[in-house]
Amino acid sequence: MEYIAHDLLQLKEEAKLISYTPIPEWVEHSLAKAPFVVVRRAVHRDSLIPVGVRGERRNQRFGAFVSEQAVKQRIRPEDLVSIFQNGHFRNMPAIGALKEVAIILKDFAWGPTGSVGFEFASGAEVIITTSDLDILIRLSSYLSVEQAQLIVNQLKECPVSVDVQVETEKGAFSLVEYARGEKTLLLRTVYGPSLVKLNQLV
């Protein structure tokens, strides 16, 4: 199975994190409450999956690795859309904004990431009233700059700030940056960020 950045992985009870640096105490506490990690955008080495653990505070983020055998379930951002549409969730601004986002992005494969995605997948209440809404669009065909501009303008009407990352086979980029139509764009890849020309994304 291919594990891609922003996928959420539910870990088995006996799963062990693999880290080349000391593991902070809060990591074990967080995984005990919600045994979920997010796949990081990094090179997979020795059949290990690069993952990130989130803590209760914004500055509590820890990068490590897990083996495929440690994974109980993989949840993609796109899988969370149907969970949202068929479930009942807390009355939070970021969650409420999803209804508008679903209409705007109805022609795309998309899903929530960040705190909203994590709460939907794990059930842990991590969204706060000031949480932004992070969205991933999985692009399978050409997206024009004009289309991107239209989406960006529509998303500005949402009640919270919506940050959209566009995922392609070559890497990911910010929808807002792409919509500016500049000649070069920052592309996030497993080897790190790099500047590419717009026509290289087509």
TrEMBL record:
Q: Identify the InterPro entries for this entry.
A: Holo-ACP_synthase (IPR017557), MdcG_C (IPR049180), MdcG_N (IPR048903)
Q: Where is the Phosphoribosyl-dephospho-CoA transferase MdcG N-terminal domain?
A: 5-77
Q: Which GO-annotated molecular functions does the record name?
A: nucleotidyltransferase activity
Q: Which UniProt keywords apply?
A: Nucleotidyltransferase, Transferase
Q: What class of enzyme is it?
A: transferase
EC numbers for this chain = 2.7.7.66
Segments forming domain Phosphoribosyl-dephospho-CoA transferase MdcG C-terminal = 92-197
Q: What is the recorded name of this protein?
A: Phosphoribosyl-dephospho-CoA transferase
